[in-house]
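Troubleshooting entry. The earlier prediction with D-MYO-inositol-1-phosphate gave an output that would not parse, so I re-checked the input for stray whitespace and re-submitted. Clean input:
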Amino acid sequence: MEIIAIHEFTVKIIHEAGERIRQSLSEKLEIETKANANDLVTNIDRETELFFIEQIHSYDPAFKILGEEGMGEPLESLDGVVWIIDPIDGTMNFIRQHRNFAISIGIYVDGIGKLGYIYDVMRNDLYYAIEGQGAYMNDRQLERLQPLPLHEAIIGINATWVTPNRYIEHNKMIDLVHHVRGTRSYGSATLEIASVVCGRMDAYMSMRLSPWDIAGGAVIANEVGAIVSNLGNEAINLEEQDTFIIANPKIHKTIIEQYVDLK
Ligand code: IPD
Ligand code: CA
Ligand code: CA
């Protein structure tokens, strides 16, 4: 597989898709709900995924595609070359804020991450990595993350986890929030992951993410030394939904062992 040629092709179609999404903001969106009233999808999410599928299959029909909106064929395994795509991550932000959303793509070969992309559409910032060749934000190579103590960390956390909930012991989350320097929540898992790989934030966790939320970011994370796992400190699984954490290597284990108590 010619990695650099695929990388150049991917950058091109991400920028084209981004331009189509920006143009769509001047038109009326068709908004529907999916699993629940807050799980939104628009015609642009679907059109963007279809655009990627058409482009990728015209490049190589053998490439397999797992997309959030299910516009491709069902994926039976991670064997071969698999593109894992979130056409718009942060759809609620896309609809309500017209910013703070991203396109994310991970390209895996037999389950190994080779190429990862997170494109902040409105800022025109592309975060990407090629396995073994470092990670970049646009033209700038990202540095490997420097260790820092937990009390100096900024962590990405959803406010729900510090209230009584059915997933995690909230009193321990309150202790974590008190201990760290600050918390943030951007409403786009991939942009939160992008913040960690750049060192603007030191951890981000979620109770439930899907393969397309993490596939691209995990490849970038490896190149800067950020640790990704589920909240049980097991390797991420790209075939099902799971809990998730990405963190600076110095604080990853401490957060899981001292503050995460899953129910
Ligand atoms: C969602 C966003 C959100 C995260 C959700 C995701 P979507 O993705 O990343 O920040 O909390 O778990 O499902 O639906 O906008 O692609
Ligand atoms: Ca999405
Ligand atoms: Ca998503």
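This one parsed fine. The radius of gyration is 18 Å.
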